[in-house]
Write a structure and sequence with these properties.
CATH superfamily of the largest domain: Tetracycline Repressor, domain 2
CATH topology of the largest domain: Tetracycline Repressor, domain 2
Radius of gyration: 21 Å
Number of strands: 0
Structural class: mainly alpha
CATH class of the largest domain: Mainly Alpha
CATH architecture of the largest domain: Orthogonal Bundle
Mean pLDDT: 91
Distance between the termini: 54 Å
């Protein structure tokens, strides 16, 4: 790459970053459905046609926001999983769950973009898949590590359909060491994962108003129950 090409690449990266930052501010103000390239263009002082040179459509810009948000959430969960390697599996699960909630509280609009009401007319492309599973894999890694260390407490087997067993078989190949985890434990981990995000969503979207005030304590207690159900030794 020549110096001129390198300079152009840096300029493009800087403008792209500025557009994404403006789009995120619009997201905070108007929600995903209110995001528009014209509005973003006005905020960064560009004509609409110039913004289209960086993002071909609103959906492409929305995808960039989604990927960035998934990566941010995934990184937070991964960092907590890595920082707690020396702790008991049960405690690690609770700590990673807390990191998910902390990220959601700090980034409510981004969380709503990922897990809230779908944006009308938008269909997430394949580019969102890998970033989207980072947080799930961070949680799964706690289970896989516990299995590798012989710290999974045996739990009763579950009767699974052939279709669900096929799904479980595919999931067991996603994380190193997860193939050692039995089918019933994988299903229990999936149930815990969905319950965790359901609880965080209930808090952020006001579904527990009038019923719960100690939200963090509830999440800790729930995550501990989940860990026990999975069989994570503590």
């Amino acid at each position: 790459m020549t110096l001129a090409e390198s300079a152009r690449a840096r300029t493009r990266a800087a403008i792209t970053s500025e557009i994404v930052a403006a789009a995120r501010r619009q997201l905070d103000r108007y929600g995903p459905a209110g995001l528009s390239l014209r509005g973003v263009a006005r905020e960064v002082g560009m004509v609409s046609s110039a913004v289209y040179r960086y993002f071909a459509s609103r959906d492409e810009l929305l995808t960039a926001l989604i990927v960035e948000s998934y990566d941010s959430l995934g990184a937070a969960a991964e960092e907590r999983a890595a920082a707690t390697v020396g702790l008991a599996p049960r405690r690690r699960w609770v700590e990673v769950a807390l990191s998910v909630r902390a990220w959601a509280i700090a980034h409510p609009h981004d969380y709503a973009l990922l897990y809230g009401t779908p944006v009308p007319g938008y269909r997430a492309p394949e580019a969102t898949v890998v970033p989207g599973v980072r947080v799930s894999l961070a949680l799964v890694s706690v289970v896989a590590d516990a299995a590798a260390a012989g710290r999974l407490v045996p739990r009763p087997p579950l009767a699974l359909s052939a279709a669900l067993r096929a799904d479980v078989a595919a999931l067991r190949g996603l994380v190193a060491g997860f193939e050692q985890v039995d089918e019933a434990t994988v299903v229990r981990a999936l149930a815990a994962w969905s319950q965790l995000f359901g609880l965080v969503s209930f808090e952020l979207f006001g579904q527990t108003r009038g019923a719960v005030t100690a939200h963090e304590d509830l999440l800790v207690a729930t995550a501990a129950v989940q860990a026990d159900a999975i069989g994570l030794a503590g």
